[in-house]
Amino acid sequence: MTDALTDNILVLVRHGESEWNKLNLFTGWRNPDLTEKGVIEARVAGRMIRDHRVKFDIAFTSALKRAQRTLDIILSELHQPDVPIIRNPALNERDYGALSGLNKDEARKKWGESQVQLWRRSYDIAPPDGESLKDTLARVRPYYDEAIWPQITAGKNVIIVAHGNSLRSLVMILENLSKDEILERELATGAPILYRLGADGKAIDRKDLLPARSLAAPPEDRIV
């Protein structure tokens, strides 16, 4: 067991594998639940955080059940069921618009391989009726500044359980990454990231927690 972590700790966790992750579907704002594997990933995430003895003061999650259920499982594993939880759609996954609910292969047949890859890989090109990563960042950043960062500056430990692209937006903010640098980053399901933050809100220390034998699903919400 490691030494206990103290103030200004922020933990990010992408939800466990969802039913649509397993089916290789674009999910976005649709609301499938966790698979059995996703539940296991959430439990393992909670146990890994518990090994670092982080006591949380507040938790944030999205309006979608796969993230909410992952957070509930993590807090149960931490034996911290009374942590206040704030749920807000600002932390929802990127909206895939017309791609939502489609299998990746179906999308390629409908729009073509190159167009689907452009939507998935680019920083600022959105699918029809959907969001780009740039759009996702535009709603995540003000919410972080107004709701989450004040909790950290008050000396509170915070956990955020959300989605691949909403969390990638937060990583951009915390690590001051460019739009090109963030496209190289992947977030595995159920793999906690522990940050210690400086007074300016930037990460001064990052620790990725991965199980000895990764249970992570292929990242459905990844851009690359």
UniProtKB/TrEMBL annotation:
<comment type="similarity">
    <text>Belongs to the phosphoglycerate mutase family. BPG-dependent PGAM subfamily.</text>
</comment>
<dbReference type="InterPro" id="IPR001345">
    <property type="entry name" value="PG/BPGM_mutase_AS"/>
</dbReference>
<dbReference type="GO" id="GO:0006096">
    <property type="term" value="P:glycolytic process"/>
</dbReference>
<comment type="subunit">
    <text>Homodimer.</text>
</comment>
<dbReference type="GO" id="GO:0006094">
    <property type="term" value="P:gluconeogenesis"/>
</dbReference>
<dbReference type="InterPro" id="IPR005952">
    <property type="entry name" value="Phosphogly_mut1"/>
</dbReference>
<dbReference type="Pfam" id="PF00300">
    <property type="entry name" value="His_Phos_1"/>
</dbReference>
<comment type="pathway">
    <text>Carbohydrate degradation; glycolysis; pyruvate from D-glyceraldehyde 3-phosphate: step 3/5.</text>
</comment>
<feature type="binding site">
    <location>
        <begin position="120"/>
        <end position="121"/>
    </location>
    <ligand>
        <name>substrate</name>
    </ligand>
</feature>
<dbReference type="InterPro" id="IPR029033">
    <property type="entry name" value="His_PPase_superfam"/>
</dbReference>
<feature type="binding site">
    <location>
        <position position="66"/>
    </location>
    <ligand>
        <name>substrate</name>
    </ligand>
</feature>
<feature type="binding site">
    <location>
        <begin position="14"/>
        <end position="21"/>
    </location>
    <ligand>
        <name>substrate</name>
    </ligand>
</feature>
<feature type="site" description="Transition state stabilizer">
    <location>
        <position position="163"/>
    </location>
</feature>
<feature type="binding site">
    <location>
        <begin position="27"/>
        <end position="28"/>
    </location>
    <ligand>
        <name>substrate</name>
    </ligand>
</feature>
<keyword id="KW-0324">Glycolysis</keyword>
<dbReference type="InterPro" id="IPR013078">
    <property type="entry name" value="His_Pase_superF_clade-1"/>
</dbReference>
<feature type="active site" description="Proton donor/acceptor">
    <location>
        <position position="93"/>
    </location>
</feature>
<keyword id="KW-0413">Isomerase</keyword>
<comment type="function">
    <text>Catalyzes the interconversion of 2-phosphoglycerate and 3-phosphoglycerate.</text>
</comment>
<keyword id="KW-0312">Gluconeogenesis</keyword>
<feature type="binding site">
    <location>
        <begin position="164"/>
        <end position="165"/>
    </location>
    <ligand>
        <name>substrate</name>
    </ligand>
</feature>
<feature type="binding site">
    <location>
        <begin position="93"/>
        <end position="96"/>
    </location>
    <ligand>
        <name>substrate</name>
    </ligand>
</feature>
<protein>
    <recommendedName>
        <fullName>2,3-bisphosphoglycerate-dependent phosphoglycerate mutase</fullName>
        <ecNumber>5.4.2.11</ecNumber>
    </recommendedName>
</protein>
<feature type="binding site">
    <location>
        <position position="104"/>
    </location>
    <ligand>
        <name>substrate</name>
    </ligand>
</feature>
<feature type="active site" description="Tele-phosphohistidine intermediate">
    <location>
        <position position="15"/>
    </location>
</feature>
<dbReference type="GO" id="GO:0004619">
    <property type="term" value="F:phosphoglycerate mutase activity"/>
</dbReference>
